[in-house]
Design brief:
- The protein is built from nine helices and 15 strands.
- It is an alpha/beta fold and 297 residues long.
- Strands 3, 5, 6, 7, 14 and 15 form a six-stranded mixed beta sheet that branches. Strands 10-9-8-11-12-13 form a six-stranded parallel beta sheet, with helices on both faces.
- Helix 9 links the parallel strand 14 and strand 15.
- The termini are close together.
- The mean pLDDT is 95.
């Protein structure tokens, strides 16, 4: 089978599309013929060699955690899923023609494989950081860097819970944030004052790692109400860095419920082939994403 992998840490140029042995589903796992794989910032952070304790790496390494596809192997002890089922889920080395998943859910009707691949890690992260921020219904959550996949999920999930959301993004994405129910403003000089003009902030999320932790702490008045998924230095200001995955099966079930209720929809901004994985990483690292980026297999 074909698989994207890297034999050394470095820039996008270390990625190679190579022939590899097919993985197989062990106990408690399933294998899918991958139709699409989600591209997440953690993918290129791992490739760069960033020290992410939740994601230890042995070289050479495959790439990717999220995927959608068709079940073609069911491991010992697995129930409730059959060969031929269409699923989305999380596993390892998903930038490949076949991948083993450790958590999965059946794809909701009306969702394409391309769309489905963008949900697993994004929704798990969104649910986790909303919880860790401590924000409650009736309060206001500030989301810095809100137009990407996690931001798109946070805005919709928070609004469904009765939480007011303020989102910052580039000028081109202001209408997109408003379409998801957020009060929107641009980042850049004077952004904190523009946020204050929109209302009191009870909790804040940093999704872009753009050096705004101190301002977020000032806006909330409490560093314990600030959570980052992109700034490893956040704890230095008393804020929390969230990088440890929570309950993925529970998150997938919640994602499916929200999608089926029409409360969650994350657009795919751009699709790539496996051979274009390096380009996908370059674009992901550049930011300014509206929704998700995925690889089509």
């Amino acid at each position: 089978m074909k698989r994207v992998s890297f034999a050394e840490f470095g820039g996008p140029d270390v990625l190679r599309l190579t022939d590899a042995e097919e993985p197989h589903a062990g106990p408690g796992r399933i294998r899918i013929a991958v139709r699409a794989a989600g591209v997440n910032p953690v993918d290129w952070r791992i490739r760069e060699g960033q020290k992410l304790s939740a994601h230890p790496v042995e070289l050479p390494s495959g790439v990717g955690q999220d995927a959608s596809g068709v079940v073609d192997e069911v491991g010992e002890g697995v129930e409730g899923v059959e060969i031929g089922d269409h699923v989305l889920g999380r596993g390892s080395s998903t930038y490949a023609e076949f991948a083993v998943l450790s958590a999965w859910a059946r794809m909701p009707e009306g969702l394409t494989f391309e769309e489905a691949a963008g949900y697993p890690s994004v929704v798990e992260t969104a649910l986790r950081i909303i919880r860790e921020s401590g924000v409650q219904p009736g309060q206001t959550l500030l989301v810095s860097g809100a137009s990407g996949g996690v931001g798109s999920a946070v805005l919709q999930i928070a609004r469904d819970r009765g939480i007011t959301v303020i989102g910052t993004a580039g000028a081109a994405n202001q209408d997109y944030l408003r379409s998801l129910g957020a009060l929107a403003t641009t980042y850049g000089e004077g952004w904190a004052e523009r946020v204050r003009a929109l209302g009191h902030v009870d909790a804040a999320l940093d999704l872009a790692g753009s050096g705004v932790i101190h301002e977020l702490v000032e806006l909330t008045g409490d560093p314990r109400k600030v959570v980052s998924i992109a700034d490893l230095g956040a704890p230095e200001a008393g804020a929390r860095f969230s990088g440890v995955t929570g309950n993925v099966p529970e998150a997938l079930a919640e994602a499916v419920r929200l999608i089926e209720r029409g409360k969650l929809r994350i657009p795919v901004e751009k699709s790539y082939t496996l051979a274009e994985a390096a380009a996908a990483h370059i674009d992901s690292a550049a930011g300014h994403t509206r929704g998700r980026r995925v690889l089509i297999v």
